[in-house]
Amino acid sequence: MNPDVTKIVSIMKACCPHAYLATADGDQRLIRPVSGTVEDDTSTWVATFSTSRKVRQLKKNPNVCLAFVEQPDGDKAAVLLGQAVIEASPEQRRRIWRIAPYDLAKYFPEGPDSEAYCLLRIVPRQIEWREDWESGNKTFVSGP
């Protein structure tokens, strides 16, 4: 595996509780805190309510920015530019339910097959990241 990807994934996993998702509603950008489940390929899963504003926004414009920031100083950070895909596969929904680093049942007591549970897969095209302020920002481009 690419050593940069290993570092990026490590930063993302360490900063998961401090992630921020930006979507667009027309010409207005909206940022909200989210928690994610990070895969070793840098894709990230975000659980949300199927009736949320962000789901409506993503159906119109799937382009997103997802930022992971180390607290409290922001020394480590990874900012993904990519697309959000609504995941309908029951197998993926159950798999993420099992491996999420937080208790999804707290928000979706009816379980992973609940109609209220919506799973977003954030697929990065580009990631701007840093291990610390001194080393500066680097850019990783995903895909072909």
Give a quick precis of the structure.
The chain has 144 residues and is of the alpha+beta class. 21% of the residues lie in helices and 41% in strands. The model has no long low-confidence stretch (mean pLDDT 94).
Question: Can you tell me about this structure?
Answer:
- The protein is α+β, with helices and mostly antiparallel strands and 144 residues long.
- It has one domain (3-141): Electron Transport, Fmn-binding Protein, Chain A (Pnp Oxidase, Chain A).
- The chain is built from 3 helices and 8 strands.
- Strands 1, 2, 3, 4, 5, 6, 7 and 8 form an 8-stranded antiparallel β-sheet that branches.
- Strand 5 and strand 6 form a beta hairpin.
- The two termini are 16 Å apart.
> How many beta-strand elements?
8
Give, in order, the helices and strands: HEEEEHEEHEE
Low-confidence stretches: none
Distance between the termini: 16 Å
- Strand coverage percent: 35-45%
CATH topology: Pnp Oxidase, Chain A
- Domain count, please report it: 1
CATH H-level homologous superfamily name: Electron Transport, Fmn-binding Protein, Chain A
Determine the fraction of residues in helical runs and give it as a percent range: 10-25%
In CATH, the architecture is Roll
Largest sheet: 8 strands, antiparallel
Structural class category: alpha+beta
Number of continuous helical runs: 3
CATH class annotation: Mainly Beta
Give the mean pLDDT. 94
Looking at the structure, what is the overall shape? Answer: globular
**Radius of gyration from the CA trace?**
15 Å
